[in-house]
Amino acid sequence: MSFISKTRTSLRPAIASLRMYSGEPGSGAGKGGGTGGSIRDAGGSFGKMQAAREEEYFYKKQKEQLSNMKQVFSQEIAFHQDQIKRHEDAIRRHKEQMAKMDEK
Known about the structure:
By secondary structure, the chain is mainly α. It is built from three helices and no strands.
């Protein structure tokens, strides 16, 4: 198989995905990879409004997920900082015990 034929086959999915998004969201059936229900199929202002609502929903969902992720990371940071403090305390105790051993 030649280099050119390999390149052609790898570009086909990319070109097909560009074609699917050629229309404006909510402008009718077949735009964006298929139908989206009777309102989206009809197109017009109702279809555009539905597309805008969908975009808003996913925007809010993504914002919520990012907020949850930040909260989880904050909890993990607090946990690791607590672990660091415990390890530093243990190191200090062991050094004190070693110093006592050296004195004897």
